[in-house]
Amino acid sequence: MVRDGSYEFFGPGDGPAQERSVRAKFWRTAKKAARQIPFMEDVVAAYYCALDKETPVKVKAILFGALAYFVLPIDAIPDFVAGIGFTDDIAVLTAAITAVSSHITPAHRQAARDAIAEHD
């Protein structure tokens, strides 16, 4: 979200809906994927980065796009397919996290560690 409250990414009016969708479904999907995604701490840190008001809008757009792909049930490979269901999610998340890694701070990583410990 831009400081003036508007969303410049997604489409007109899509930013708040996309963020709400990611927030609502993130932990449920993360719990299901935890055993299949070896870098879950990075995914959770990216989630906290996307929610951080100090994160630039373009970075938020990349992260919310990747996180929305992760949490939404419509996928190139359905997540329920044993053994390969999260492979497309892994590719999208890896690309997004790599692209914005300089914006994922030690505070985001600590929040991720704390949240993972709390959700175990």
TrEMBL record:
<keyword id="KW-0472">Membrane</keyword>
<dbReference type="GO" id="GO:0012505">
    <property type="term" value="C:endomembrane system"/>
</dbReference>
<keyword id="KW-1133">Transmembrane helix</keyword>
<keyword id="KW-0812">Transmembrane</keyword>
<protein>
    <recommendedName>
        <fullName>DUF1232 domain-containing protein</fullName>
    </recommendedName>
</protein>
<dbReference type="InterPro" id="IPR016983">
    <property type="entry name" value="UCP031804"/>
</dbReference>
<feature type="domain" description="DUF1232">
    <location>
        <begin position="59"/>
        <end position="94"/>
    </location>
</feature>
<dbReference type="InterPro" id="IPR010652">
    <property type="entry name" value="DUF1232"/>
</dbReference>
<dbReference type="Pfam" id="PF06803">
    <property type="entry name" value="DUF1232"/>
</dbReference>
